[in-house]
Design a protein that fits this description.
Strand content: 25-35%
Number of domains: 1
Number of strands: 8
Order of helices and strands: EHEEHEHEHEEHE
Helix content: 25-40%
Largest sheet: 8 strands, antiparallel
Shape: globular
């Protein structure tokens, strides 16, 4: 687990809310505090959709909403004259991208071993911080996947020109 202090909050917010950079991530949960506190439970409710929509959206393979689907609503809550008092989002790497990371790192872990590769984004009066986390469905002392995830997030931020310090 690492903690990244974002150096340019305005630039990061532009990338988070106005660009598609984070769209592939799934949203586990979130909250935004402006004039009220708005809570987001990212768990999908498949019964909301028709069987045809469930198949088209591939809901059998997903548990959470994608950021691309929630981003417009979050933008509406955050934009305006006033800066939010705080917000937090718990993102999870999609299963497709988790499989890619496992293949790239030649990891001994399987997709079923992993509960989630997590990116927490938190903003408050002290600034904006992103932390990584790993949830496993088994006990192991092997930290190789955790380190690979930490490195991937740092590379992702550098590629997207997101300035940070550890």
């Amino acid at each position: 687990m690492i903690s990244l202090r974002i150096e340019d909050t305005k630039s990061f917010m532009n990338k988070l809310l106005l660009q598609q950079i984070f769209d592939p991530f799934h949203v586990v949960e979130g909250s935004i505090t402006t004039y009220n506190t708005f809570h987001i439970d990212g768990h999908l409710e498949p019964d909301y959709y028709t069987p045809e929509e469930q198949v088209a959206l591939n809901l059998s393979a997903r548990r959470f909403s994608r950021w691309q689907d929630l981003r417009p609503f979050c933008l509406e809550l955050i934009k305006g004259k006033h800066t939010p008092l705080n917000f937090r989002f718990t993102f999870q790497l999609s299963p497709e991208n988790t499989e890619k990371l496992l293949a790239q790192t030649e990891s001994s872990f399987s997709l079923s071993d992993i509960g989630g590769l997590i990116l927490n984004i938190r903003y408050d009066f002290a600034g904006l911080t992103c932390t990584t986390a790993l949830s496993l469905n088994l006990f192991t002392m092997d930290k190789s996947l955790e380190h690979a995830w930490d490195q991937m997030v740092q590379k992702f931020f550098l590629k997207q020109e997101i300035a940070f310090h550890l």
